[in-house]
């Protein structure tokens, strides 16, 4: 499985999916004009990657300051893939990084933790 | 000899539209003769070299003048052929080369095109010279024209979208006295929408955030408006939760946004949409002073008279119409009694999610509530200005991320 690296743009996050070390990260903001076009290929790759795993320890780091509603839906699909992988016997940690003063992003993370209970959700406050 | 004609400002489409007819020289001309031509006409920047009808090169004024001015160059090269200092490999393009293709060719030819220009031919014969600056001008004009056409079209779309809001505006003004409705699409048109109906026994208000913004967002508002209208033919306004449920079904079926289990047979549809809306639907009953609220990922904010707190009432966590929302999903009605002077605010996520402030983070509910409390004593129209000022100050230099809608009312 080829690793994926996409540099951040104003409207898309940095994507650093190191499938070989089971460490995946998203960082920045997400409000592309066509979220499906941006996330579709990533979802497909992640699904293929996860399909071949069993009892793996996967670490996902997410540090997003903003994502629009269409990105949200696709991010949820991504977390659902991880949750399914965790249900199937993998161990998935979701490190959720948020600014200490950003209650919106923290609340969003907590919703993910509620919706996808198989993930080992860890909230990390970024202190300035 | 003809002088450089002013470059044409009528829309240029092909290389030939940029054509100028400066004087030309043949390879047999001497550098002295070239010097004379440049000295005689200060506006002559590039001199095409043409052998019979064959384009040979371009002599650039600045290159030529600075070279010939070197010690002894005039004496040594003066009588020699003018090909000595010419760009012998200029860009040569056919008259009918489209501008876009010309610009790509110019880019790959390198910087020289900008200073020296390019030669234009008809059937291989020299026809004229195009200047680099004319090409840039034509591309800028083309860009501006495309932008103008697009914006004209979006501005007209905005007229249509706003006319859809007219009856709501009218009813709002007739039913309420102390209120405001701020509606600011990010891109002239947008995915935010509101709906207001005045009845004898109360009023119905909906604040809606359809997926997306700009043109696709505006499309969605029209789909949602028509779904709402359709649903209201068979249901009344007093049960907001039932309305959400009915719209959900209607939208999922009309856009084919069904989950795998809900699809009756396996449609091999390649492109499937997953669009819908987050919203707050409220019915206010005058006689009992009861607000019946059903929300799809959109809270409402209430300040009771004399209170120092903003009460947040959350709706359900499912959006309306999306693939992941079940076809038979049922929203819940929540009832809030509002005392005289109570204030109600409904906002889409555009305000709360806006990036800004010193740390470039979301505005957030906490700061939003603080702002509501700070200005709660003011008349509603005054509050509108204050709240938007706080919001714009938070946004600062950051780009607007989403459409913004904010409704506020103080009940008599």
From TrEMBL, chain A:
The highest taxon in the source lineage is Bacteria
Extract the Pfam families matched here: SiaC
> What InterPro entries does UniProt report for this protein, alphabetically?
SiaC
UniProt domain SiaC family regulatory phosphoprotein: residue ranges: 7-124
Spell out the protein name for this chain. Fe-S oxidoreductase
Its source organism is Crenobacter luteus
Automatic annotation (TrEMBL), chain B:
Q: Which UniProt keywords apply?
A: CBS domain, Hydrolase
What's a Pfam family this protein contains?
A: SpoIIE
Organism's domain of life? Bacteria
Which SUPFAM superfamilies did the record assign?
CBS-domain pair
Q: Does the keyword Hydrolase apply?
A: yes
According to the UniProt entry, its GO molecular function terms are: phosphatase activity
Kindly give the PROSITE patterns that the UniProt entry links to this protein.
CBS
Q: Which intervals hold domain CBS? A: 18-75
State the protein's name.
Protein-serine/threonine phosphatase
Source organism (scientific name): Crenobacter luteus
